[in-house]
Batch of 2 targets.
Target 1
Amino acid sequence: MAHSSNHSANNGSLTRRSFLAAGLVGLSAVSLHPALSLAETSTPHLGLARGEPGPATVAAVKIMGGMGAFVREGDNVLIKPNMSFSSGPDAAVNTHPEVVEALARMCLQSGASRVYIMDHTLRDPAACRRESGIGAIAETFSGKVEVQTPSSSHRFQKADIPRSKQLGSSDFLKEALAADVLIAAPVAKHHGSTGVSLSMKGMMGLILDRGAFHWKYDLNTAIVDLCTKLRADLTVVDATRALTTDGPSGPGEVARPNTVIASRDMVAADAKAVSLVQWYGRSIAPEKVGHIRQAHERGFGRMDVENLSTGTIEA
Amino acid sequence: MNGFQRSLQALCLALFLLFLILAGPILSGSIDSARVFALDPAAYLGAALSGRVLLSGLGVLLFLLLLTWGLGRFFCGHVCPLGTTCDAVRPVVAGKRPSGPAGGQWPRVKFLVLFFIAAAGLLGLNLAYWGAPLTLAGRLFVLVLGPAGELALSGLSDAGLLSDRAASALGLPPDRYLGAWFFLLFFAALLSLQRFRPRFWCRFICPAGAVFALTARRPLFRRTVSEACTDCGLCRRRCPMGAIGEDPAQTRHEECIVCQRCVRLCPEGAIAFRFRGLREGPLPVEPFLPGRRAAVGTLAGAAAVVFVGRIGLLEAWSRQEAGQRILPGELLRPPGSLPEDAFLNRCIRCGLCQRVCPTDMLQPAMGHAGWSGFQTPVAVPRSGPCEPGCTLCGQVCPSGAIRSLPAPEKVWAKMGTAVVDRRKCLAWEWGKRCLVCDEACPYGAVDLSREPGMQVPVPHVREDRCTGCGACEFACPVVDRPAIAVSSMAEIRLANGSYREEGKRRGLRLGRGEDQENGEAPRSGEDKRTDLPPGFL
């Protein structure tokens, strides 16, 4: 295998040295083998890149074979960031705009005909687009990228969820049902009900009625149900900053792991983010997150990150 | 047709509508709404007398009165959006019915309305909103026609004919307001009265028209009739204001709105509007003011209304705090509202704050604020929360009833305090894993913590962090009465001075982000049962 991999067995915590070493190898591997992306099977299960939000995002996706492995000519792509709150990047409740912008740029470079960046926000949609900094991304690209925060019911369409245990059906954003490629791009943050809010929990931003998740169903089970329908082709967790307490809305303590995690496996990406960050000042195993454990048990993905091949790079 | 008058009316109405439509984020701060509503002397008078203050915009009002002294009631005939609406609706409600005679004593009623408003104002009660035409137009367009137009547009949007961006720029989803039925009936009646006379409101009732009439008893620019007049009476029969006397050469200038229809109608070309000296031409003969008896009766009536109000009509009065009305605990005011009595006097009920509120939290009070608070803005969290960064209601308030505060200061203008009703709460009572209130709170004022004997983390309100914005109440998934709701408890209402200092004095910690000068970030109570932070299993 041309690509560097380290099977990190030390509970997911990466020392500076291992990062540097892996990064050097990874960097050379990427630069020496531009055709890497063709070999899907040769890419590791998880890709970690340390650095500034934009470059780290590009590097992490490159480990997973580059955006060309996910997006084909003419595809409609839906990127689902966290932009549910009217706060700036420092609050770590929304995905960093540079992460989202890098993803959109790579999608266009891979031939996407249209990139939708969408979230059904909790706060005032216009304020969320503005304050998060994500709304301004659309202006960077000439018309091919749209940032939308729809909330009116006609933008949603009812669809069944065949593999669900409780949820049965839900009203999905039409663009989410129609997208050729779905990219989950959450920020790493704590969540008072579900432990963390990462790629899986974030899919609740693509449906209309979230109240039922809280009062009708078991929240963690319903999240896994939802993800069986909205299974991201690529998950990119923005852990450049992480809200480690008082999520999902903050304000809380913000750590700066300066890391972007990429994977084809939503569960693995989320589990990796859980083990990477100190929550309320301490390490917490991924199995302590209800929906991650359930997803693992249902065979939807893998939370045993210590057993998964991991490529790391210093961007 | 009078091209000039109609064009100017259309232009002024369009500007007024544009002002209302764009008053929100687009115009915020760049147009001083106080100057717009100072064009309405009745609104100004009501708020200034009852509030015992000189409102800003006085210069505009005095300038307008000076113009009226020179040009007559041109404002009524060309600028007033309510007058223009009357003209536009008249063919619908009256068809081609003739204008009819002047109306005897009726034109004097508007002076009684003005006296009534002024007297009530002097006695400390602002009732001007029942008659002030600009504020009426504001409510007509903001509370009735605005939502109707937006509803029609949302049809287009639902059919996919509008882009998302266009839809949000046009104010979709549509605003909805409390008591729209009342305003619909009120304005339907106001406009339908034109079946009896054109501009029924302007001629007989409008207190602003009365102020202008007092100023335009003998304007410099006025109607003159030459010797060519054959006394045919056509002008008198068609005058929309009944401003022409039995002798067509006589003009009741205080009624004339300078539309100059008579000039165009006159078959002999005998009528012209000219600048004349104050003493030139025939002097007005007819008395135009109501008699002393009617005036005294009106003043007594105003005193009686204020008196009845003071002894309590719809609200009880506190024995503990003498002179304080007992209002429902859920009565919330916009952030930065003056203390309640001053607020009621100052508010001119123009509807602008309700228009610009991005979440529709602000609604016109019907019975919610007592009878003297009728149509004042109330904050209804179930309709929408108060956005932390938004300061529009204070920015646009023309009378200063809601103070204009910068966003970091607004956060300290505490509207009330959230209270959890454990008997309805999904977490407390039903053992459901719900944290919606915590998630919704922009201020970290709702904490989830594990409690002995509870299966799931349960919410607590940290009162010192709660600004009463209602985000929790808005988001609470419990149907009908929410399980967390804001009451006006511990609200801060200041006539002047800093909310932040007052809040700090009371030990509040209301800031956000860099404003949060409390050292440590808030931390939800940790798990007392499993020793894990909230959310983990």
Target 2
Amino acid sequence: MVKKIIFMVLLVVNVQAEKNIYDTNCLACHKQLSFNLEKIFFRYLLKYSDEVSVKSALVDFLQEPNSDISVMSKEYTRSFGLKQKSELDKEQLKEAIDIYWEKYTVFGKIK
Amino acid sequence: MLVSKSKATSLQKSERKTLVSFLLLYSFFAVVILFFSAFIYYNLQKDVMLREQNSQLKEYSDELIGKLRSLHEDFTYNKTYPRSKDYNSAIYDSSNKEIFSTLIKNEVDLTKHLYVIGNKIHYIRILERYYLGTMYLVIEINENEKWFNFFKIKVLLYGVALFLILLIAGYFLLKLLLKPMRESLYLLDRFIKDTTHELNTPVSAILMNIETFPRDTLDEKSAKKIHRIDIAARTISNIYNDLTYVALKNQVNSKDESVNLTDLIKERGEFFKIISTQKKLVCNLDLEKSVVIMIDRGKITRLIDNLISNAIKYNKKSGSIHIKLRKNYFLIEDSGIGMTKKEIKEIFERYTRFNKSEGGFGIGLNIVAAIASEYNLSIDVDSKLHIGTKVKISW
């Protein structure tokens, strides 16, 4: 019984440890939204095309959310409001965005 | 010496050489101009062909953009790139990074709109909305080679026809331009030939009459005058022979025969003996008996005469001339003014005269060099300034 408890505790600790900055700071909230992160990614891709521009636009928006630079429609931001300013610093934001890019990038996925 | 009638009436060698050189140069420039024109025509034809393909390529790109849009929207479920049997394609993001490609020719120039690479045509279109991040869309189709085959045939036919027309025009143009010059040269040539011919009779008459003149009956003063006339007549005769050789050398056929050089040098020595007495020169002949070579008698006579004449002309008063003949060489040595090494290099050039106080045109050694070259005779000149000159002719 003691062994089982120890095993469960270790499993929970391990799962927590595997969660990265993107999972804990981005995915956790966006999971509950109707507009998922993949759709947002493709909106950025549609507007900014390459990796550097997409990442830079994401950093700018997350640091200073603004309806003018948002990829979402005006109707959407009017109905649901703008995202709150991110509490992550620039380096942390970059790290989270790098993970986000790798997760949804089209490079190497097209057949 | 025989004058060849056919050569005299046909184009002269130098004129023919000028004609050939001009036509070669003219042909070269004509070919360059034709190539340049063909190049411009090729580019025009290529542009026409590309314009014809442009609308078709735009249709293909519209079709592909539609399919990219669908793929962008359904990327979660479908990741298969839209392909077509009519064309290949590729997509690039705004940093020119390839997103996906089915191109055969992968070297893409995204700065151009439409171009040919190998046997393929590339059409580049910039998208307004970047589906899957695509800023540049490339459509690749096979080049229609019909136009190029048609172009090759046209250029070959027109090119050859135009080249021939230019060549014929050039030939007649040159003939027209050379006509007045040719007439002037012909007149000058005729004048020189007529003059030299007309000189021959009086010079021969003077020489013959002086030789047969009974000098014993004359007083000392008159004998001296006759002697001077004799020297002058022989000098004129030598100049006359040189001029005849230069004037007619292109139109004279060599008539080689066995020439006894021993006898010929003795004979020419006798001829020049009177001239040499004017400078009180001592002449030594060291001739091997019966040295015979195959050569044109007139030409070898000009060669020997010019060497002896120079040895006399550029000698000191009371100097000496030594003539040596052996089986394979002939040497003439004088005790004259000599030459520097630089002067030796230039002596065989026409109209070269180092001592302007002496008479002549400076053509003597040029004639010697021309004859030696014709018969593969080697000339060695050894000279020391103020000591003398040795000229050796070997065969």
